[in-house]
């Protein structure tokens, strides 16, 4: 078990062996992971750091200054981390002792005397000392490295816990200052900086001390000549500091751009269905490309700095040695083997520290300071007050609730809240989400809440309903039946244990509404706040929910029901009518036009509560017997690749950044740079008399080619990342809607945040370093074989062992890394889902439970991350121990003085290079799993082309004639058919209402028309077969007002007109038509005002009006309204309907609605049931059939409402044609388009209107 691990080398050698044996035989699964250690649990670490942050906030408040998150982090971790500094110092001191002992050993060989037994004894001691140093370094380095990585992991996990905890507490005004994308970026990229920071941070103080000690030793070895080399090293330190500051600047810019890109990606994935129906993929692609291009510019600049850093590291030792010995020779000294190799070894001991570790520490420090500042800004955002009895209201909402200041009301058993529109604000104030301007709201008892826009989270349906409560089978069964979910559960593949996708994408709108209601009902609450739960379901299901649930299970509980359906008001104990100023009106005569139905319902005292219940009982048998289940898609598990990363994957990765010619040039430059590097030291020893010329030339070439190699390499790899991101995003935009329905948003965002982040930063550095070290290793082997050929006898078997170990390690390490990627996705999905349902979570007081779920996701990820760290140490320690054995064997071998110096120098170099090269190559393969995951999303199934060779006429469609000819439709190839054999014609300028019970296929009709999945059969628009057109040519010519209005985080102008096709005058006119002009004019920058995320600074009704303004601007002949008024108040509904009648009088309009009064004045009504057309005729004709579905739906609205609907149906006129002859002519034209004869069975629902429409008498004339 992982709990057995300690810093003991024995444990490192043993406890992971069973896991590696399993990983070598088969792929690892989550069940193979060990439980996370208590010290790494997210909750423990988060609460510890949170306590220090709270203490810092209190202290700063007293001192009237801004709290410093950096100080809190330091106070929390400085003790444990300082202890690691001591071990860092010991390790670096050991590296210095090693070359000193090497010098003594070489001097023995230079003055070798076979009879000098005392010298031999000392040489053995020196050899023993070197051996112990090698073994000590092999063990201590990895214990130290592992513990510094643990420290970074603890900081990262603690910060993630705090960030999520803060997100659950954000006030509404604070949420307007941040976005989901920014929080995802904080959790993915910002906190990950601390994983690297802790590894290098101690070198900021160890480095200067090490330089001072080496200076003293070099002075004793070569005298004043060492000052030149040390001076150059000291010069590099401020240079690296400047580089670090520049990294900080670029990191700040990149972080902001990454926030914007991920925020946009979050909105794109969330609103993909709307984007596709609007054909807005291109403007969003341009927006993301703009952010990504700026991000790449800053990334390229920082990569060039890294290239300069790596080139400096690559050639610094050679320049230092050149300058040092040039001065040494000029001062009249003679070069000896011992002086050369001791000097080179001492410089080598501090080269890593000064040119790599010190610079890396500065780079990570400045980047981490930027991240801390960003996290601190987030943690300082305003929180929602924790007092549940007294709520404080932000100023911007005070005008809504100000007239409640002097009023009070006691809630009886059942209160119905009637619009116009501040009813949700009233519930929000009760919940504490919208505090009051004055006064208090006192709540006695536990609240529960069903939100207006249904919210479900990724998980099983049972989890969504129980919401943390224990399962009571009897109660659970009762709730399922009351919420009309029983039949749905029976038809699902896994029943209520079926996994649902992110945002409930696999459920229909009606199913989400019922699950949302069932969650509230299952809670043992004292007061139930129900915010319009009946709007998303049809009248039949709505009646069932009202009677069996709201007035059934909850009959003994206080309920506040917000509703637009006035037929249910008679059973209310009290009715609260809210005006715009939120003044409560008790039941009394109301004369406003918007509440005329309320007056008519209340005007007849004889129609009492008892009469309503009698009427309800009469319908019970019909309701209970006819409720049908809806089709549900099932969320898919995230896949993982198996086996090794193929060579083809590496080739695709490199080819994404450059063509073949550039890659060949890169290869040649790498070889030349390595050749010049490999022969530097041998030239100094073998050609000592001419070293000034040869060594100088090789050093200059090393510097030049090293710089060119690094810059070219980084350029290619950054371009590869840029290209793969573009390909992935383009593929995502072209993926069918079904992909987004079954894949959680966190899974997609994980690719665009963490995986792309690793490809942007970590992979290029590791890739370049691995290639560089591998080439250096090959170069050292070649040169050593030329000088000391027999060294190959040891090198070859050790190389074989290394490669076997690498293969054995990677079998397990790759799977661990892949598991790390898949266990990271739920963290982001949970964050995104929690932010969407924040009001519900807080209403249920479930913050701690969601925090616990987040911690569980983090702990699962920590299990894989911890295993990744420990397995890397397992591998690296074995490599270092093998290298130590290799060098020890060489030390005790007998060689000549010059040869032993060269051999030992190369052996020590190989010890580091072998293990580092193998480790880095393994790390490259691990990081390539991110490329693999991105590549997976570049090869997704694509929908039909956006444009084809067949382009419609510019004025198409000029009439708006739509014909369905034998259409069958399903959302996926293996999914059930949701529309069956549909044959129907929608005539030009005809207004058609589409109704049906929940799950009847109404929204599927829209999906088929927009080809969100490819339908079988034929759909014609003005005689043109839509399947032959490009998707954009089709979708741009139809307008839709969707059920869920989607606004994006951009300007109002871009939300209305992303293609910049309309003038300012047209935009303002469209806003005027929907009565939003005054609202937009009051915004700070008017049309250029940047909207909040998802348009959250607008109400649902206002967002719906913006969608209507979009439709007005597009001026298309076909308009589809998909439940657009389900969640808006009657006043907004009336405004939308009036605008549609006026602005779209010459258009073909299809209106899908649950509110029958919305479509009762349509020319014809299509009744769908189970994906088939049950009736298609004029409203009044349909109402003449008592057995018809439409008749029953009307009757279920209540007696008074049914009478009003019948009266409205009688008044329907025929505005779209002046004569029946003209109508029949249009129908004949439709038949000619499809080569059908009159009387064709497929025209069963398209019979001449002279036969289908009833006679209407108006002013003595018969139509």
TrEMBL record:
It catalyses: hydrogencarbonate(in) = hydrogencarbonate(out); ATP + H2O + closed Cl(-) channel = ADP + phosphate + open Cl(-) channel; chloride(in) = chloride(out); ATP + H2O = ADP + phosphate + H(+). It is a multi-pass membrane protein. GO terms for biological process: lipid transport. One of its GO terms (molecular function) is intracellularly ATP-gated chloride channel activity. Residues 1237-1246 have a biased composition (Basic and acidic residues). InterPro entries: AAA+_ATPase (IPR003593), ABC1_TM_dom (IPR011527), ABC1_TM_sf (IPR036640), ABC_transporter-like_ATP-bd (IPR003439), ABC_transporter-like_CS (IPR017871), ABC_transporter_C-like (IPR050173), ABCC4_TMD1 (IPR030240), CFTR/ABCC7 (IPR009147). The chain crosses the membrane at residues 81-105, 125-146, 197-216, 222-239, 310-331, 337-358, 656-675, 695-718, 761-782, 788-809, 875-894. Residues 83-360, 694-926 form the ABC transmembrane type-1 domain. Residues 370-605, 962-1195 form the ABC transporter domain. Keywords: ATP-binding, Chloride, Chloride channel, Endoplasmic reticulum, Endosome, Glycoprotein, Ion channel, Ion transport, Isomerase, Membrane, Nucleotide-binding, Phosphoprotein, Transmembrane, Transmembrane helix, Transport. One of its GO terms (cellular component) is chloride channel complex. Residues 1221-1263 are annotated as: Disordered. It is found in: Apical cell membrane; Early endosome membrane; Endoplasmic reticulum membrane; Recycling endosome membrane. Its EC number is 5.6.1.6. Gene3D superfamilies: ABC transporter type 1, transmembrane domain, P-loop containing nucleotide triphosphate hydrolases. PANTHER family: ATP-BINDING CASSETTE SUB-FAMILY C (PTHR24223), ATP-BINDING CASSETTE SUB-FAMILY C MEMBER 4 (PTHR24223:SF357). Belongs to the ABC transporter superfamily. ABCC family. CFTR transporter (TC 3.A.1.202) subfamily. This is Cystic fibrosis transmembrane conductance regulator.
